Amino acid sequence: MPDRVLDPSVWATLDVASAGVVAWAARKTGRRLDPRDVPLMGVMTAAIFAGQMVNFPVGFGVSGHLVGAAMAAILMGIGPAMLMMTTVLILQCLLFGDGGLLALGANIMNMGIIAPGVAVLVHSALRGTRVGSAVSSFVAGWTSVVAASAGAAAGLCLSGFPADGVVWPILGWHSVIGVGEGLVTVAALQLVWRTRPDLAPARAKSSKPAEATEAVTA
């Protein structure tokens, strides 16, 4: 989301809220992160950064790209995922001008906080059912994109944009984009789990649904 789109009161509020949640994630990660996982976080952050630079058409001039929040959250947990996504969004903003500086808090809230938080909630809930890991990963990836787009639509509506011209177009297109996100999430996770079985879904158990809810609503 670029600058001069959101109302100043909206982006200022989201800047403060995002800073608070990211600070919480940093403290949580600092207490619980295994030092051996630091290189993995770096590699995954670089992969997500590169993946977000590749766009794919979804029709009528609209394109989508990998978000990577669900993959990061499922593999590493909610705290590290928020830090990884925040790092990617800051680098994109400062180095490539992709996303406004004043709107950085809004972009972090949508893609760096809401997206991984929702992904963990959905994945954790589905893991308690009979569906397989592929289905739970796909649904987590899809819902993370739709939830992030809903956050963006809410910010635009609060900034004075008409709801009927914002909500359904954004949610509609991102429902399609979310299919690609879900498929990429499944493929990436299955590849990692085959080569690193120690990172199998048990990794996500440290991100309990209550913790994810706390992060999203903090």
Overview of the molecule:
With 218 residues, the chain is mainly alpha-helical. Helices cover 73% and strands 4% of the residues. It has eight helices and two strands. The protein has helices at 8-32, 38-52, 69-76, 78-96, 104-127, 133-158, 163-195, 209-217; strands spanning 55-59, 62-65. It has a two-stranded antiparallel sheet with strand order 1-2. α3 crosses α6. It starts with 7 loop residues before the first helix and ends with a helix. The relative contact order is 0.16. The model is unreliable at 204-210 and 212-218 (pLDDT under 50).
Task: Report the count of strand segments.
Answer: 2
Q: Please list the strands of the largest sheet in the order they lie side by side.
A: 1-2
Whole-number count of domains: 1
CATH domain class: Mainly Alpha
What is the alpha-carbon Rg in Å? 16 Å
Average pLDDT metric: 85
Low-confidence stretches: 204-210, 212-218
Helical content, roughly? over 70%
Distance between the termini: 22 Å
| Strand fraction | under 5%
The CATH architecture assignment turns out to be Orthogonal Bundle
Described by strand count, sense and barrel closure, the largest sheet is: 2 strands, antiparallel
What's the CATH topology name?
Arp2/3 complex 21 kDa subunit ARPC3
Number of helices, where a helix is a run of at least 4 consecutive DSSP H or I residues: 8
Given the helix and strand composition, which structural class is it?
mainly alpha
